[in-house]
Amino acid sequence: MLNPGRSCPTSYRYGAHALRGEPSLQAESLWIAGGLYGNPLALEALLEAYDCEHGRKALVFNGDFHWFDVDVADFGRINDAVLAFHATRGNVETELATPQDGAGCGCGYPDWVGDDTVQRSNRIIERLRATAARLPHTLALLRALPMHLGARVGDACIAIVHGDADSLAGWNFSQEALATDNGLANARKAFDAAGADVFASSHTCLPVLQCFPGGKVLVNNGAAGMPNFRGEHYGLATRIALTPAPNSVYGMRQGGLYIDAVPLRYDTRAWEQRFLEQWPAGSDAHASYYARIMNGPDYSRQAALRLTDRADRQAPETLRA
Ligand SMILES: [Fe+2]
């Protein structure tokens, strides 16, 4: 029996071993943007920044590119723009394309997220389903997307997931789980199981860049389409490359690999307007997200950058923050 918004359908589970195998992408610079959440201004900022990237490059949207875009025209434009690049399904796209009985939004929310938030998310996905139903061709495209992708940057194997190493909507790569010894131990094991040097994830809405022994790195971009830090108004994408990012909120170098959180600076007032047209005061998304859109979450860059885990006090070569 599923608890809508809390439990994950069994079809979400792939297991870390499924991430092994020949990477389908190879690039000198790999951009990963999860959690666009239907923000067309953040999308525009991302594509402009990515356009400035030279050399062999790839851009992957790792899920939840839809969420606030209940306007049919916005939904269609975002779908078309995202699917022109590499993309994986998040729980949002999965629950639009193949709704699972009793899954609700498919977020798999842990117990630190309140019931009111969970119920509002279940209602948001219902509204978004009504929008997507008006563009049936998009549902077939979303259904065909993979749940994860493998990439190679230099010699490094990058496992790109939405949730965590085991599940589309897993929370093991959340900053909250990685703040515990048990969470760090679980993540360390996942690198071996997946044969990965770097995990790139999203889904849990707050960013974290966590280093592990042996040069392994877990990078969660938080949200591309919403602010990620208190008082700061930009989304974040992850850039993994053989050269340093020209602008970076924080980042690190591991051997020849540069891993950066890249800011997506969009017009906050224009996005506020666009959001309110779709989700006015009193609506579910307004209650859950408006304060964050305007002020950022109660979280800081310093909290997101974790260059050591407690089992390995040795810092990586270079800190750039
Ligand atoms: Fe998600």
Helical content class: 25-40%
Helix and strand composition category: alpha/beta
Shape: globular
What's the SSE pattern?
EEHEHEHHHEEHEEEEEEHHHEE
Please give the radius of gyration in angstroms: 18 Å
Features:
single chain; 321 residues; alpha/beta; Purple Acid Phosphatase, chain A, domain 2; 7-stranded mixed sheet; 9 helices; 21% strand; disordered C terminus; binds fe (ii) ion
Quick synopsis:
The protein is an alpha/beta fold and 321 residues long.
Could you please describe the fold and organization of this structure?
- By secondary structure, the chain is an alpha/beta fold.
- It has one domain (10-320): Purple Acid Phosphatase, chain A, domain 2 (4-Layer Sandwich), CATH 3.60.21.10.
- The chain is 31% helix and 21% strand.
- The protein is built from nine helices and 14 strands.
- The strands form two sheets. It has a seven-stranded mixed sheet. A seven-stranded mixed sheet has the order 4-3-2-10-12-11-14.
- Helix 3 (91-97) packs across helix 5 (136-143).
- The relative contact order is 0.17.
- Fe (ii) ion is lined by residues 63-64, 90-91, 107, 162, 169, 203.
